[in-house]
Amino acid sequence: MAILITGGAGFIGSHFVRRMVKHSHVVVLDKLTYAGNLENLRDIREDRELSGYFKFYKGDICNQELVDHVMSTEKIDVIVNFAAETHVDRSILSAGTFIDTDIKGVFVLLEASRRYTIKKFIQISTDEVYGTAFHDAFKETDSLNPSNPYAASKAGGDRLAFAYWNTYKLPIIITRASNNYGPYQHPEKFIPLFITNAIEGLKLPLYGDGRQERDWIHVEDHCAAIDFIIENGKEGEVYNIGGGNEKQNIDTALFILSVLAKDKGMIESVKDREGHDRRYALDCTKLKSLGWKPQIDFEEGLRDTIKWYEENEQWWKQIKNGEFMKYYEIQYNHRFAGKN
Ligand code: NAD
Ligand code: TYD
């Protein structure tokens, strides 16, 4: 099987590549934006045996010519589209690239899938398309209410993919996962930012009252679910993928500090995110009834993740010392100044 993994140099994509390359011919198409990092795939590229089953194309999923070239050259059977602009706070600063990649990019991949025969197309969507869970955890049939530019653009890609199943009968499946954590996550995101700031002795900027809730899933559990869905999922369907670990941000921050034996005074309550979704929660009965369930305990997974960041300082310091410093200033200086 030849599988095209777009965004395969990012956080989740690189874990998925590592999993699939053991039994499939893996082709990665990645633009290598600030979030893409070939270091995430170094072990595979340097493994004599595995590298034979792996091919990398640097490029944009919005580039129709390039996508056509990859599809025809590599004779792709399955597409898993991870490529996206993914950080909510960046989408609030500037939404343009989110519209391009998360909507137009999906369109280009879907159109290419009409021209070349594919067996499956997995569109990686997100729980954020549902908006805040005020009451029960969301089921796949609940209406979408995306509330920030990232979530809205992902909802666009999600529904466009569905439309191509409904209209053209392309073999499409849509997944909506909850918040991922694990090794190789870019330090702009909450968990790695808090781990690395704590290691560096910097303040941990907790938005608002810190009582917002997120359902955390280990990235390996998420990748196992996608693999399972390729085999067992039904075309035209949506599957929620949650870890079943609903935590308030303040509690996650305190846990990180306790594992690192750091003072809880490092947490600083800062100006809240604009339009901040209060709670994400998923009902995963549909996927569980097919036989999947998450395996990794949250505290154990988070301890291992913290250890990984302790042991891989070079990986994240390279990121934090680059473009990120400027971003951090723009994103956080005013937050620290305008405390709650
Ligand atoms: P990430 O930001 O770590 O990686 C995104 C990757 O996509 C990068 O390698 C980047 O270079 C690449 N990319 C961006 N624009 C591109 C373009 N136009 N063409 C080709 N490549 C491009 O993201 P992630 O956290 O690994 O998320 C992967 C997917 O999973 C995304 O679709 C995201 O919406 C979804 N998702 C993420 C989470 C989470 O908690 N991280 C939860 C649910 C769903
Ligand atoms: P994030 O990792 O950006 O994921 P998402 O917003 O997509 O769920 O943030 C997770 C939670 O952590 C969210 O409620 C916002 C909060 N947060 C902070 O409190 N401080 C921060 O510096 C960041 C990046 C996030």
TrEMBL record:
Keywords: Lyase, NAD. Its cofactor is NAD(+). InterPro entries: dTDP_Gluc_deHydtase, NAD(P)-bd_dom, NAD(P)-bd_dom_sf. It catalyses: dTDP-alpha-D-glucose = dTDP-4-dehydro-6-deoxy-alpha-D-glucose + H2O. Its EC number is 4.2.1.46. One of its GO terms (biological process) is nucleotide-sugar metabolic process. It comes from the Bacteria. One of its GO terms (molecular function) is dTDP-glucose 4,6-dehydratase activity. It is an enzyme of class 4 (lyase). Coiled coil: none annotated. Belongs to the NAD(P)-dependent epimerase/dehydratase family. dTDP-glucose dehydratase subfamily. NCBIfam families: dTDP_gluc_dehyt. This is dTDP-glucose 4,6-dehydratase. The lineage of its organism: Bacteria, Pseudomonadati, Planctomycetota, Candidatus Brocadiia, Candidatus Brocadiales.
